[in-house]
Amino acid sequence: MKRMLRYLMVLTIVSLVSWNVVAQFVGEGAKGSLHTVQSVKDSAIKLDRTDAVVRLKGFVVEQIGNKDYWFQDQTGRIRVEISKKNLPNRPFDEKTELLLTGEVDYDLLEGVEIEVESIEFVTK
Asked: Domain range holding 35?
C-alpha cells in the first residue's frame, strides 16, 4: 500500500511539473508575433537573418506553383510556401481568413517569401 501511495504521489508531482511547462510567453518579442505583409517586407533582411517567426492574418488568394501561393492582407501581398504536410485538413478559398505562422525568407533575386509552418482558421 505504501508503494502505491508513493507511486501516486510521484505521478501527481510529475503531472504538476508538466503542466507548468505548457505555459508560453505571448508578450512583446514572443515567437510568432503578429505582423502585416508590409511590415514583413520592410524588415525582411533583419527578419531573415534572425530566423524570425512571424504571424500574418489575411487570405491565400491564388496558387502560383506546386507549393507557392499569394497571401494578401490589407497592406499588400506576399508569396508564401506551404508544403502539403502544413496544409489544413479542411478546404479553404480566397474568402477564408487565415492566420499563417512561418519564417521569413529573403533572397535578393527572388524577393521575400514566408515559409509557412502552420495555418489556423480565423473565427469571427
From this structure: 31-121
Contact 80, 113 (CB under 8 A): yes
Domain count, the chain: 1
pLDDT in tens, 2-26: 676 676 666 666 555 544 444 444 4
Tell if the pTM clears 0.85, that is, is over it. Answer: no
- 9 domain-assigned: no
CATH number, position 54: 2.40.50.200
The answer to whether the CB of 63 falls within 8 A of the CB of 79 is: no
Q: How far apart are CA 54 and CA 51, in angstroms?
A: 10
Determine the distance from the C-alpha atom of residue 4 to the mean position of all C-alpha atoms in its chain, rounded to a whole number: 43
